[in-house]
UniProtKB/TrEMBL annotation:
Subunit field text: Homodimer. Part of a multisubunit complex that groups tRNA ligases for Arg (RARS1), Asp (DARS1), Gln (QARS1), Ile (IARS1), Leu (LARS1), Lys (KARS1), Met (MARS1) the bifunctional ligase for Glu and Pro (EPRS1) and the auxiliary subunits AIMP1/p43, AIMP2/p38 and EEF1E1/p18.
Biological process per Gene Ontology, one example term: aspartyl-tRNA aminoacylation
Subcellular locations according to the entry: Cytoplasm
Origin species: Salmo trutta
InterPro entries per record: Aa-tRNA-synt_II (IPR004364), aa-tRNA-synth_II (IPR006195), aa-tRNA-synth_II/BPL/LPL (IPR045864), Asp-tRNA_synthase_2 (IPR004523), Asp/Asn-tRNA-synth_IIb (IPR002312), NA-bd_OB-fold (IPR012340)
One Gene Ontology term of the molecular function aspect: aspartate-tRNA ligase activity
Span of domain Aminoacyl-transfer RNA synthetases class-II family profile: 204-509
Protein EC: 6.1.1.12
Catalytic activity entry: tRNA(Asp) + L-aspartate + ATP = L-aspartyl-tRNA(Asp) + AMP + diphosphate
Family classification: Belongs to the class-II aminoacyl-tRNA synthetase family. Type 2 subfamily.
PROSITE patterns assigned to the protein according to its UniProt record, in alphabetical order: AA_TRNA_LIGASE_II (PS50862)
GO cellular component, one term: cytosol
Name of protein: Aspartate--tRNA ligase, cytoplasmic
Length: 509
């Protein structure tokens, strides 16, 4: 019963109250002694634990010769004679620890420590000692812990489905010297363990950074974050790649993008909107860059004079993200780079903008045979990325004025040449990360284009009606979060940057 009453409230821990250990009533949970206090400010049952847990990251020489408590996982364990060496890990930080038979530890304690399964969570009370030689294999290189007490807080099963050290081995290294590497399916089947690695932690902290920078940049530019429905009555992009779900006595679809709704917000005078949310695609595409559910970073804004205002706003947002990552996430970038090496990501200011016809001309010059109105295939997209890098030394650029025929029905045709459109894609390391356009804001033209694309007008009636009562010229784009992270870090598979990826063959974990 005592478990339910444990108070971990910071208010309680930081109250600075000291209790008389012997006179106060106490209870124990997982080896921690809690003293019950009277008159605490805390709304939980008042109590004070007998230890303050220090973060592994904070174990520096300043803490030398102090007796401290640490809660961490047993990363590795190696018994040798009368001592046992442990590496204790907490997220991406780890520290060497030692239990040795002596005044402070018995033979039984060394044996007990040596028998704790890897990945178990322990509390240790230990003396912090400065070391003469740096411990290169640990993040805390200047100190080690001399353990005096050890409690198992949560025991891991003895057999792990995969070893963390195999999961972080640099690409290619394992195969050469015969050491194990872990294939992607095994990693994803046991994702929680795979996610514990320093590489995974770095990837997902960086991903969180991309979302944060996206939100901060757009909020500073006066955008409003909106939420759009994910269960919808009509496929937003038309076409077949939509999941149907049963919806009471009828059926509905999972949104392929927030497209129609973010535009409807523009019709409702929100002027500049963005959203971050799941996007569903029922495409049987088993490639390195397609998921059936991904996170869309979407932008839509009204413009005053020219749709290039929209391109500028989006490219500036991307540049702010790249700068933020470069300046605030170097540790993460380098951690990932140790396992998956890649060239640092390069970008220009202002962002390079090429027209589709220029891109086609560069490809033709490189020997590609393609028509004016043909869409870019994935290999051609990558080739063009390499040609652009060689010529302009950038990993990020915009291709503007796509052929109208290869774009969705709501795309604004180019007023000067109806074969083309006011639409654009953006690329990182030669792969598409964004599709966008000026949208048609005239109900009549929108209706004509929808008919041209064989879209059932009845199903998008409320969308088209939104434009009947006046709508400002506007445009925007949709970005795939996982693609941005994958390509920024120079990784080769979008599943590495999706915590629990969904693809045509994977629905679990
Ligand atoms: P692709 O040609 O690569 O299949 P798309 O043209 O279907 O992409 P859009 O529908 O324009 O892409 O979506 C906008 C952005 O969303 C893309 O540029 C990409 O970053 C991301 N995206 C699209 N489809 C997927 C997917 N299946 N998995 C992950 N991200 C995706």
């Amino acid at each position: 019963m005592a478990e339910n009453k444990v108070c971990f409230s910071p208010a309680c821990l930081s109250s600075g109250m000291r209790n008389d250990r012997d006179s106060q009533p106490a209870f124990h949970v997982g080896g921690i002694r809690f003293s019950q206090m009277g008159g605490s400010q805390c709304s939980f049952p008042p109590c004070e634990p007998d230890r303050v847990l220090v973060r592994v990251q904070k174990l520096t020489p300043e803490k030398a010769d102090q007796l401290i408590w640490v809660r961490a996982r047993i990363h590795t364990s190696r018994a040798k004679g009368k001592q046992c060496f442990l590496v204790l890990r907490q997220q991406q930080f780890n520290v060497q620890a030692l239990v040795a038979v002596g005044e402070r530890a018995s033979k039984q304690m060394v044996k007990f420590a040596a028998n704790i399964n890897k990945e178990s969570i322990v509390d240790v009370e230990a003396m912090v000692r400065r070391v003469e030689q740096k411990i290169e294999s640990c993040s805390q290189q200047d100190v080690e812990l001399h353990i005096e007490r050890i409690f198992v807080i949560s025991q891991a099963e003895p057999r792990l489905p995969l070893q963390l050290e195999d999961c972080v081995r640099p690409e290619g290294e394992g195969d050469e010297d015969g050491r194990a590497t872990v294939n992607q399916d095994t990693r994803l089947d046991n994702r929680v363990i795979d996610l514990r690695t320093t590489t995974s932690h770095a990837i997902f902290r960086l991903q969180s950074g991309v979302c944060q920078l996206f939100r901060d940049t757009l909020t500073n530019k006066g955008f409003v974050e909106i939420q759009t429905p994910k269960i919808i009555s009509a496929a937003s992009e038309g076409g077949a790649n939509v999941f149907t779900v049963s919806y009471f006595k009828t059926s509905a679809y999972l949104a392929q993008s927030p497209q129609l709704y973010k535009q409807m917000c523009i019709c409702a005078d929100f002027d500049k909107v963005f959203c971050v949310g799941p996007v569903f695609r029922a495409e049987d595409s088993n490639t390195h860059r397609h998921l059936t559910e991904f996170v869309g970073l979407d932008i839509e804004l009204a413009f005053n004079y020219h749709y290039h205002e929209v391109i500028e706003s989006i490219t500036d947002t991307m540049v702010q993200i790249f700068k933020g990552l470069r300046d605030k996430f170097q540790t993460e970038i380098q951690t990932v780079g140790k396992q998956y090496s890649s060239e640092p990501f390069k970008f220009l200011e202002p962002t390079l903008r090429l027209e589709y016809t220029e891109g086609v001309a560069m490809l033709r010059e490189a020997g590609v045979d393609m028509g004016d109105e043909e869409d870019l295939s994935t290999p051609n997209e990558k080739l063009l990325g390499r040609l652009v890098k060689e010529k302009y030394d950038t990993d990020f650029y915009v291709l503007d004025k796509y052929p109208l025929a290869v774009r969705p029905f709501y795309t604004m045709p180019d007023p000067n040449d109806k074969k083309y459109s006011n639409s654009y894609d953006m690329f990182m390391r030669g792969e598409e990360i964004l599709s966008g356009a000026q949208r048609i804001h005239d109900a009549q033209l929108l209706t004509e284009r929808a008919i041209h694309h064989n879209i059932d007008l009845e199903k998008i009636k409320s969308y088209i009606d939104s434009f009947r009562y006046g709508a400002p010229p506007h445009g925007g784009g949709g970005i795939g979060l996982e693609r941005v992270c994958m390509l920024y870090l120079g990784l080769h598979n979008v599943r590495q940057v999706s915590m629990f990826p969904r693809d045509p063959k994977r629905l679990t974990p």
